[in-house]
Amino acid sequence: MFAPFGRIYDLDTYEALLKIPQCIGAKHSSLSRELEWQRLDFGDRLRPDFKVFTGNDLAIDMVMYGSDYLLGLSTCAPDLFARRDQLWEAGDAAFYELNDWLQYLGFFAFRAPVPAYSMPRRCS
């Protein structure tokens, strides 16, 4: 959906990227938790310093699993995302409720048939 050439790199290609020292990270925007978990696992096993930036606006909690994030959705409510991150860092259980509300926003903004990135700018 987001790749101009119409494909997400397969795991062999992704592993090859991890072997390039100048490549310090990659954005993952498949909207699939499973694919992103696979890439996180590769990074953890093969190159722990490698950053995986989630672009998965349907799974904003991927930060709980080790993703860094680069979410377009966060531009809709930067103050609330900042608060959510502060709560997560502090180990405050209020994180979960705020995360749920923000995820509902993601489900609304990224509903079929059009991803939010293609919509007119309404959030920022």
Rg (CA only): 15 Å
Give helix and strand order, one letter per element, not per position: HEHEEHH
Main-sheet strand order equals 1-2-3
What's the helical proportion of residues? 40-55%
Strand content: 5-15%
Biggest pleated-sheet summary = 3 strands, parallel
Number of strands: 3
What are the low-pLDDT stretches, counting only 5+ consecutive residues below 50? none
Q: How many DSSP helices?
A: 4
Termini distance?
22 Å
Structural class: mainly alpha
Shape: globular
Mean pLDDT: 82
Your description of this structure?
The structure is a single chain. The protein has 124 residues and is mainly alpha-helical. 41% of the residues lie in helices and 8% in strands. The protein has four helices and three strands, in the order αβαββαα. The chain has helices at residues 11-18, 33-46, 78-90, 94-109, and strands at 25-28, 51-54, 68-69. Strands 1-2-3 form a three-stranded parallel beta sheet, covered by helices on one side. α1 runs parallel beside α2 (33-46) and α3 (78-90) packs antiparallel against α4. The longest helix is centred in the C-terminal third of the chain and has 16 residues, at 94-109. The chain is globular and about 40 Å long. The relative contact order is 0.13. The model has no long low-confidence stretch (mean pLDDT 82).
Brief rundown of the structure:
The chain has helices at residues 11-18, 33-46, 78-90, 94-109; strands at 25-28, 51-54, 68-69. With 124 residues, it is mainly α.
Q: What is this structure's SSE topology?
A:
Layout: H1 11-18, E1 25-28, H2 33-46, E2 51-54, E3 68-69, H3 78-90, H4 94-109
Parallel strand pairs: 1-2, 2-3
